Amino acid sequence: MKAIKFHKTGGPDVMQYENITLDAPGPREVRMRHTAIGLNYLDTYFRSGAYPLPLPSGLGSEGAGVIEAVGDGVTSLKEGDRVAYGAGPIGSYSQVRNMPAGRLSKLPDTISDETAAAMMLKGMTVRYLLRETYKVKAGETILWHAVAGGVGLIAVQWAKHLGVRIIGTTSSLEKAALAKSMGCDEVINYTEENVAERVRALTDGKGVPVVYDGVGQATLDASLDSLSPFGLLVSFGSASGPVKNFDTGVLAAKGSLYLTRPSLNTYVESDEALQANVADLFEVVGSGAVKIEVNQTYALEDAIKAHQDLEGRKTTGSTVLLP
Predict the structure, then answer these.
(1) Residue 203 Ramachandran class (φ > 0 left, ψ -120 to 50 alpha, else beta)
(2) Could you tell me if 113 and 290 are in contact, meaning their C-beta atoms sit under 8 angstroms apart?
(3) Alpha-carbon separation of residue 168 from 72, 81, 187, 223 (angstroms)
(4) Of 34, 41, 229, 318, which has the maximum CB count within 10 A?
(5) pLDDT score, position 179
(6) pLDDT tens, 72-129?
(7) From the centroid of its chain, how far is CA 248?
(8) How far apart are CA 312 and CA 269, in angstroms?
(9) Half-sphere exposure of residue 254, counting CA atoms within 13 Å on the CB side?
(10) What are the CA-CA distances from residue 236 to residues 43, 147, 257 (Å)?
(11) Any idea what DSSP says for residue 222?
């Protein structure tokens, strides 16, 4: 059995494809064999040390596969069940692993393994952002940064399904076209346009009630300047680096704004909350309201190349590793 491990933090080349051994599943655990594994920008935070982990460590929080064995006390799953997950624990970059049964969700026949691996963490993230962190309403206009990424493309479709007008930001004409093909109403190329000025122009000077920002430091000012008074900046990622040395007085000066830094793990901490989130995700994907774009696949052993392409902004939509 093989898995990706890293013994020190750093660039993609710290990852190693290693032999592993696996104990029998313990109480309330199952052993699953991965058929597809999701690649997420979050993985690079753990690999680089931005989010510290005890070392050596595995990597990855999202995958799909088949149950091979069940431990004592497991009644919700059985051998042969197709399952998927998107909320850890860390270690999905592996051929086989043990998982807490309560963190797995049975896959409906309408959703393939590759689709599930590509959508679980990203889709669960979009669900809590749109339905819990800020409950978007039909007729509202929102701003979403990096709209052509895996999370962004799901968000565009889900927001449109809810009757929301969405403004997105991207770095190229190709990515803008991709976002528009998924229903994004307006796309701003941040390499050529002033984002906040364009948002104001598109909203008759009012700004938006909420900005979803997974980019971090590089987009902070544009995000704040795009908000209407009492607006909310949802800073849910830091692809460009974390926000540092933030002066909260800026929130007052720019219109009594709000800032939150949410995490999926908090929103799905209980098994019940996780399954409620996943039920909504399966519903919108199963109905066809949200389509999952798997635009790149790599062999698990080529995880280094996958990370290089992800961080080099060479990917769009979702990426899947195949064990």
Answers:
(1) alpha
(2) no
(3) 48, 38, 5, 12
(4) 318
(5) 94
(6) 999 999 999 999 999 979 999 999 999 999 999 999 999 999 999 999 999 999 999 9
(7) 27
(8) 32
(9) 24
(10) 14, 14, 16
(11) H
- Residue positions counted in the chain: 323
Tokens in use for 55?
A: 């070392």
Chain-centroid distance of CA 30 in Å reads 24
Q: Are 91 and 60 within 8 A, CB to CB? A: yes
Report residue 189 as tokens: 């190329």
Percent composition of the chain: helix, strand, coil (DSSP 3-state, to 5): 35, 25, 40
Output the CA torsion sign for 238, 241, 247, 249.
negative
Q: How far apart are CA 77 and CA 275, in angstroms?
A: 14
Q: Which helix (H) or strand (E) holds 15?
A: strand 15-19
The pair of structure tokens assigned to 317 is 């939509």
DSSP 3-state of 316: coil
Q: How far apart are CA 224 and CA 233, in angstroms?
A: 7
